[in-house]
Amino acid sequence: MTAESLTLLLVAAPGAAFVILGMLWLLGVGLSERLLANLTKALYLLLALVACALFWQMWRGGLTTVRVSAGDWFSVARYHFPLALLIDRLSLPLVGVTVVLAGVVGAFSVRYLHRDPGFFRFFLLQYLFTFGALLVFTADSLDLLLCGWELVGITSVLLIGFFQNRPDPVRNAQRVFGIYRIADLGLLLAVFLAHHWFHTASWHGFFSGEWPGHVNQLDGAAASVVAVLLVFAASGKSAQGPFCGWLVRAMEGPTPSSAVFYGAISVHAGAYLLLRIEPLLHASWVATSLVIFIGLTTASLGTLVHRTCADAKTSLAYAAQTQLGLIFAEIGFGWTTFAVVHLVSHAVLRTLQFLRSPSMLRDYHRVHAAAGGQIDPTGEQYDSLLPKSVQVALYRMALGRGFYDAILDRFIVLPAIALARLLGVFESHPERRSPPAAEPTAPPPSVSAIP
Amino acid sequence: MNSPSCSETCGCTSAAPVAGTDARHAKLRLVLEHASHCLPSQGPMGVFVHHNTLHAFQHQDFESSVIEAAELFEAEPFLTEEEYQNARSEGRILDEDIDAVLAGEPDAEVLPGRLSRRRLRRALLIPGVRRVNGLDIAWQIEEGDWLSHFRRDLPPASAHLLTGDTPLKLWQACLKRVEFHADLQPRTPRRPHEAVLAATGEDLDRVVHPPMIRLVGAYLDQGIAYWPMPHRELGLLAAARRIMSQPFALQRRHLGAVRGEFLRQQQQAMGVEDVVLDALERLGVPEAEWEDYVTAELLPLRGWAGMVHMLEKDVTLAPHDRIRCSLMEFLALRLTYTLAALQDIMGDTTSWRSQRVEAPNIDRLTPVARFFDAAQLLGLPSYELEALSGADFQRLSSEVVACNEIERRRLLHLAYERRHERSILIPLAKHRARPLSMPAVDRLAAQVLFCIDEREESFRRALEEVDPCMETVGAAGFFGVAINYAGLDDAGGVSLCPVVVTPAHAVREVAVGGHAHLQAKRQWLRRAWAKLTRNAFISSRTLVRGWISTACLGLLSLFPLVFRVLSPRSYGRLIRRLNRAFLPEPKTEVTFMRDDAESHDATTGLLQGFTEEEMAERVLSVLGPAGLHRAHARLVVVLGHGSTSLNNPYESAYCCGACGGRTGAPNARLFAIMANRPGVRTALRSRGVVIPEDTWFLGGYHDTCSDDIEFFDVDLMPSSHRGDLNRVQQSLDRARVLNADERVRRFGTAGPGIQGERALRHVQARAEHIAEPRPEYGHCTNAVAFVGRRTRTRGLFLDRRAFLVSYDPDADPEDKSLARVLAAVIPVCGGINLEYYFSTVDNEVYGSGTKLPHNITGLVGVMNGFQGDLRTGLPLQTVEVHEPVRILFIVETTPERLMGVVRANPELVEFVCNQWIRLATMDPCDGHIEVYRGGDRFEPLTGDEEPLPVTPDSRTWYQGKSGHLPLARIEPVCAA
Questions:
Q1: Which residues contact B690 (CB under 8 A, 6 or more apart)?
Q2: pTM assigned to the model
């Protein structure tokens, strides 16, 4: 097979699996757990083989870029929605990471979710997520990337709320959904503005040459605006800067989905976007310094909060946020290759740590015993250099998770709700404004009405 | 609902009346003590001790307790009515069981001469009422078939009585006669949360809980957080005061006043109790209602409150950092937050008490529909219904209401248990009547001592099937040696004995003299490994070190990630091989001898080891009750047990309950060494236990998860016993394959085709698999405990559901052994069984829900997601195939002897007389069975409806089936 068809197969396979299984589900066909388990293993094995074959083809053929175009989805006047995929030296490692990690987590989940009522739903969402993630990493244009981006977002939200019969997971899923919506506005606006100003949103329209070292073709304030908007969107996905608080809320889902989304793939999508638009980023000092600023502040806040987290998953979430901040900063400084290595390594390590998070009790006791009951006390390094009162204030800040939720609730959500109420006054009818009176108990249905 | 009745008899000493403020303080302490009984008593998870979830109610009888507790905790007392009715349709409950249960309940006339309460209830239970839901009645009437015809599953007699009548008429008659009592008035709120919710829709718990959970979580943390909470040594409240009153901090919504509260407390130097008393006053709670209020405030975060309470009672439960805990401080913290939030939302702190909470809206038609259903079941046509006199109708209607859902479930549960009881006792009696022919040998090939654990039942059966010349014996898995033990690799000593016992003797494992250098090297390597692992753990998470380590070394984790998940067994093998290659394993011995009479450890106060007298005592405590007084086999193997699994916070729940949730291997090893000592044998001989010169005891370990077996101190065994050991080893190897084979029938992931060796490999992989939420099923399905001679149960297929305690009544004329055995066995097995019962009937309230989103916090427990209550009890995955019945104890003795023993022990009185366990005796002479029926009443077992099928071997019986199986008699086909 040619590299082009391999690329198509790679992206289409999980999407097809989702569509077919989803249809079966809607039709009420009950698939056995065993069948679905084997299907999952087969699918990820196939994806891994395809990814290997693709790598082999490119390496042997000396190809650095594979572009596949399936024409346009639709055209409106001068606007075309291109269905084009791109595999290059940036996409390939990320595709590899996605396939391997999603596959390992898939194999893990087959066991882990055995007999769970949501077994089928979980795997449907995982296929859809794999499809979305592969689309993000291989899209040749912002338009197509946006599709994958949204799929990753919605599957992420649905898996946070996986345990639908409990209020907390659903509530937190909603919260994350809201944050995603706001962050994704950046991406949407960027696509609109790119089309408006530059008449293109595809990578080869943006840049010439190949990654790394491709050259930015856009300039001016318009390019800067697009870059800043994309940084905004990337921060949302990677829980950085103004969006640094949602990652912990995502820990409500089952352990493997926490691993694949928030340890591995989903959170790194933002970093990927920045890597992709790196020349555009560096053409604008505003965007560059914004990325560095966001990265470094999130990293320092993340590490501060992480220090006080007393549970396994929150601690991992903030640790992941810290490293993502550093990856952002690396991209800002232009250390692109290092950032890719860091990204891949970090994704693999965090996946393992998330999957093993239920082992923490045993691991800690084993280390404790091996150390002869003497574990060096922690928290005595930089902190002890500060005066005691500052330490406590910092601890207070860390325990309040950087006051993120307090700020969000008090200064964003409440005013927004108040504003909505205010605007609602203009729309609603006076009688509907008062809360509905308690319904009187229904009178017995008239029996005589029944023939 | 209000004051849990545990308050009356909990044994809390009321403080002597003191005047003034002291009296208020004393009263507050008493109130908190009472309230704390309702909290879960589960300590840090590293050691999971099974106990009765409703321990606080154990002084009253089971049935009323579960119902009362269900109201208090908003939980389910029994299975759902649907589950019982399903059981009835599957034949798991028979109609005669329901009749028998009803016969045991007080009867009354409902309609004189026509209807008794018993008949009424029977009609409501068979075939069962339709679920009536206020919302869909109108639909059922207009669209469904309620009015087009009567129920199709009516008993013929009722259907006959209804001929000539129409559903429409009956419905109209019901509508006319059934009165609606809207007796549910708005009530006063129990705590501000309810009032605020009713008044504003704001959920106060969602305001108060997040900071509470973070503070308490950080306070109790045993080593997860890199930065331990500052000022922790001052106590929870003081630390919270210092931390939460920092300036420049932004409080969450509605909590702006918390800082002021803390500062005020600090300025006025208020003690903890002052804070609580002050808060109670400001909340307007009168002294008489303190207890209800405090209970209501503690229950919403009962997991955390319970943990604080447990650590307050016994600080040594904390696995690493001993922290001073106080439930009073927890309460003070909670009230401080509640006050601040209440003030912010409602504008003051007392108006909440005048707020009324609406009772749930009861649909007017629901009682009508219920009565409509009952009338059909009774065969009460409309004209008769209309003709009933007012008093008659009133009685009928109140009887129907009295037999409400909870009552029906209670009756069905009793029927469910009755069928279980009969399906065990009748076949058991039949089996007893026809003793199995034992092979005619002079001396047994070997005797193997197991723990009484019901998971060992299949193993023992398999071993006896494989080699009929072997005998197995069951004794509580600490084998009488209650010790504080530290293994070669352990940091400190832990208790290996039932939790109710405090060990007085310390035993240490040390390297033998010649291997000291190996031990030194091992320790050095382990220290280095610990340093490395610890550093890797920390440095993968922090900023600067994390930068280097994740970027440079992160990729290395791909190897363990992929291999652990895709090939768990080979990964486990690789790790073991690496360990063997690099980590020297010195030969070890245990230091257990003490020559002088008193040699206490200076710091712990423990006796160092045992004197020979004490050892003989320990050995006798196992061999005596089991009747192993003479003619032992040449080899006696003592197998302790434990369970290893990965990625499983509940690992300890699978270990040996008689060893306090740890492995019983050291106890088995020690027991064998003691029993081999000539001095001990001499001492035993003087007490009537004569161990032959050529008998050798060998300690071993059985892993109930992977079915691996290992032996200890084989090199000390005389070479003359090699042959015996070989035979035992071969038989055990074959038995563990059979055991694994029997176990996998329960595992859905194993698939149907897995048998024999493959089954063994499957269970081994489960132990090594990091994605396995059910490494094994633990005590799941436990239902029976047999205390008696093995010959009574030998050759009986008990489906891994019976604890088997070896007890020989003939060797125990004074019932001393029985008293000792029951004192240990009833609380341990009863506790396990009741924990499973409650975690099954309400997995969300009494259990910990599904394991999948669990998140370990502070190394003390698990919670759902990132901030929630600590979850106590057993997870769904552990109890999913459990059948919730009270454990049925069958003791081989007479009722008089048994009750004599029970009456002498207050704890047993609670268990037995309040019927938290079911009890029966099997006569030691003629084997007739009598069943305990409350008070001092025993009732002989009669009836013959349960068969005892015969099967050539266990496998034939269970093959291809995955549900619970009835008893069967295993009679090998003679090779003739």
A1: B629, B630, B684
A2: 0.94
